[in-house]
């Protein structure tokens, strides 16, 4: 198995409810290390660009509004198969379909306000990490 890095975002619904620590415990208990972390307010342009792949979807404008509705916590998670492992720890996009014990099952408010983002493949993980972090901000 390969050690990977993946981009994680704790979304505004979760920061608003003060859930950063509980969510970080899920990552750490699940075998991932938080090797970079910063709390920021995304701009509309940043959120639109980050979710650009979804620009044609009906939920795009609402999603961007939601992602700038409060602070987010940007993170780089590291570990064995970190990209897939993080997706397991997060659970399904729609919390109604998320497995017991996952972040989204426990904390998500809706399919949109689903508490966390995680990269979905090695290429997107590399792009998403570089979009938010300088190499010097990541300390493994
Ligand atoms: P994931 O975050 O699980 O990778 P997607 O990449 O498909 O899911 O979607 C990105 C984000 O867009 C989701 O996490 C969620 O916040 C939002 N989203 C996805 N599908 C819907 C939908 N049908 N209605 C509203 N928001 C959605
Ligand atoms: Mg996705």
From TrEMBL:
User: Could you state one GO biological process linked to this protein?
Assistant: UTP biosynthetic process
Entry's InterPro entries? NDK-like_dom, NDK-like_dom_sf, Nucleoside_diP_kinase, Nucleoside_diP_kinase_AS
MF terms (GO), sorted A to Z: ATP binding; metal ion binding; nucleoside diphosphate kinase activity
Q: Report the principal subcellular site.
A: cytoplasm
Please indicate if the UniProt record lists Kinase as a keyword.
yes
Q: Which reaction does it catalyse?
A: a ribonucleoside 5'-diphosphate + ATP = a ribonucleoside 5'-triphosphate + ADP; a 2'-deoxyribonucleoside 5'-diphosphate + ATP = a 2'-deoxyribonucleoside 5'-triphosphate + ADP
- What EC number(s) does the entry state? 2.7.4.6
Q: HAMAP family from the xrefs?
A: NDP_kinase
> Any idea what this protein is called?
Nucleoside diphosphate kinase
């Amino acid at each position: 198995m390969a050690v990977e890095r993946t981009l994680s975002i704790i979304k505004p619904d979760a920061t608003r409810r003060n859930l950063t620590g509980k969510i970080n415990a899920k990552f750490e208990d699940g075998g991932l290390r938080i090797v970079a972390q910063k709390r920021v307010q995304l701009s509309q342009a940043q959120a639109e660009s980050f979710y650009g792949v979804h620009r044609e979807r009906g939920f795009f404008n609402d999603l961007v509004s939601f992602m700038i509705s409060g602070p987010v916590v940007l993170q780089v998670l590291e570990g064995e198969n970190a990209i897939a492992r993080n997706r397991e720890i997060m659970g399904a996009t729609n919390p109604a379909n998320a497995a017991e014990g996952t972040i989204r099952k426990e904390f998500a408010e809706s399919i949109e306000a689903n508490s966390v983002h995680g990269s979905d493949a090695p290429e997107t993980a590399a792009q998403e990490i570089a979009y938010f972090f300088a190499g010097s901000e990541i300390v493994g």
